[in-house]
Write the structure tokens for this entry.
Amino acid sequence: MLTNRQLQILQAIVDDFIMFAQPVGSRQISKKQEITFSPATIRNEMADLEELGFLEKTHTSSGRVPSEKGYRFYVDHLLNPQGINSRDIQQIQSIFNDRLVEVEHIIRKSANILSELTSYTSILLGPDVHRHLVKRFSIVPLSSDTAVAIIVTNNGHVENRMFNLPPNFTASELEKMVNILNDRLVGVSLEDIHIKLEAEVLAVLQQHVRSADDFVHALVTATMHNSESKIYYGGKTNMFNQPEFHDLNKVRMILDLMETTSQVQSLFHPNESGIQIRIGSENKQLEMENCSVITTTYSIGEDQQGAIAIIGPTRMDYKRVVALLDVMRMDLTLAFTKNRSD
Amino acid sequence: MLTNRQLQILQAIVDDFIMFAQPVGSRQISKKQEITFSPATIRNEMADLEELGFLEKTHTSSGRVPSEKGYRFYVDHLLNPQGINSRDIQQIQSIFNDRLVEVEHIIRKSANILSELTSYTSILLGPDVHRHLVKRFSIVPLSSDTAVAIIVTNNGHVENRMFNLPPNFTASELEKMVNILNDRLVGVSLEDIHIKLEAEVLAVLQQHVRSADDFVHALVTATMHNSESKIYYGGKTNMFNQPEFHDLNKVRMILDLMETTSQVQSLFHPNESGIQIRIGSENKQLEMENCSVITTTYSIGEDQQGAIAIIGPTRMDYKRVVALLDVMRMDLTLAFTKNRSD
DNA sequence: GTTAGCACTCAATCAAGAGGAGTGCTAATA
DNA sequence: TATTAGCACTCCTCTTGATTGAGTGCTAAC
């Protein structure tokens, strides 16, 4: 168990390092207002804290730097939540100023503002389309041999896909098909659509229209392929500002990771609630060993969920980011649930 | 006018520098097979070429480097077109292997393969949605007070937008509205829709339904906002490989530029035909002073157009990129025009 | 007209030395 | 006994100067 003085010193060191990105020396700490003891005392305590694994040295005679364990302790025990100033709040509120209800628009704007306010990179996951339910199914013929299939979900999301019509397909055949599909698919979730299609609908369709399997196949691949939640980025190049990323290779690895949907998805932990913080190697991705990722989720309507992530160096301003994310998740949840009566 | 020998030497220098990214010395050149004269002779010629502005020195006793004027001369006069090898052709063909007709999918894949084959960054512009014509207009109510408006175009593109319904809006009112809109809007191009809406449709709608102006307004902003062609990227971080971009600031400026739609759009010159090459400061963007941009266009259907850009250092392998783009534009044009009978 | 030879320039690399920030330890102090 | 002043020591960083090597320009010979 750490003494009070050790806590104070650890906090001062982490705070200082977060601010200036330079190894922190005993003299530097002793000059702070809240610190009343001499550099020598501080050096003794620092040696102890290092032995306990909370601090590290970059070389024998350098100042101290927080270790991952140090950051972890800091966020777990020393992170007294802090309000954010009214200018920031105002800026967040500005997202909702124009009365547009368009989900996509709001999320995009949120991503930008979050990256601006934090000066880190933000990633927002849109609603999880998987679980939307089919509201209406329709087909619009474009020419004699092509048409567009359109699925509207209960949340107003629209999926569409072009496909080829069999030769000489008549308008009445088309109508029949649309009717069958609406009868069977309305109320089914997008993630279940392909099951339903293959298990039930295919057989029925085959009795009434030609080349039903081609069509069903096209529809199945369309809905299966396109079912991940959309990803929005803000401040992709913000990390260039951080001194720890003055190394081209690191930046490149992270930027490449962000181009890979599956990698980005795995940054999130949708099942945990509240705000999660992963520090350095606590992230599964090797590319992220110098980064911390702070994530949280927000609600869209009754049963949908989106997620937010902020990516920064391990020397991230945890206090501020956590506070901002907290405001953001609340505001987004509020905005997306009030005007909706599905 | 340059002598034959000067041409030969200029070409050798540019080729060598493109390959090795190092200032080229007279000895280096003299060792090439096609060069038969001594280093001293080459030095004399190089001094002349420098005086003419085709070459530059990085310092008094360094080898020579092509100037922008040198590159320009090279691409204009020394770029004997070169075939590309069959492995490359095969890889390009692989884009069209799966029989998917989905335009978006093909373009996305093309962007990736182009960046792989060139090891530069590729940008592809999708079809210009502006000029699509409305094929069908429909509205799907989601709840008592929200609905989705959907526009399908003659090319199978789908635009959609959520909007609020006035209280107690009846199904018959909705039907009437959809009918009016279909009567008036089918055949109108997306870029003209807002004119038509405000000039004609609004008045008619006002006679039949409540709060028509709200609705029309929502529709106008929706179609005006969303009307740029979609942009696809390949190999965004490829430039990290180039020694001239080992400078964080340069990379950052270019990456930032690529996040700004308007900036990206202005890289293209859709009115010129064939293949355009902009070298260094020939680009209007300040961020691009170390880059060359090679662009071309391809056709989608009868009247649609897409565009391709490759961004690399001024020391770009012009020969190869030009050859690849030529194949690409032809293949894309072919793929997008054969199976379509709009 | 071409080329060999030579003096010259300049970037890049390396070693040595000075300066400075910071530590750990010891002895003095409260 | 806990704290602190003092001092020797470590190691990074910056500067300086010397060395090396690639490459040039010029001149004189071929």
The interface with chain B takes residues 101-103, 135-136, 138, 140, 142-146, 148, 150, 152, 154-156, 158, 160-162, 164, 236-237, 240, 246, 248, 251-252, 255-256, 259, 339-342 of chain A (CB under 8 Å). Residues 23, 25-27, 39-40, 43-44, 46-47, 57, 60-63 of chain A lie near DNA strand C (CB under 10 Å from a C1'). The beta strands of chain A are 55-57, 64-66, 121-125, 134-141, 146-153, 158-164, 231-234, 275-279, 291-300, 304-313.
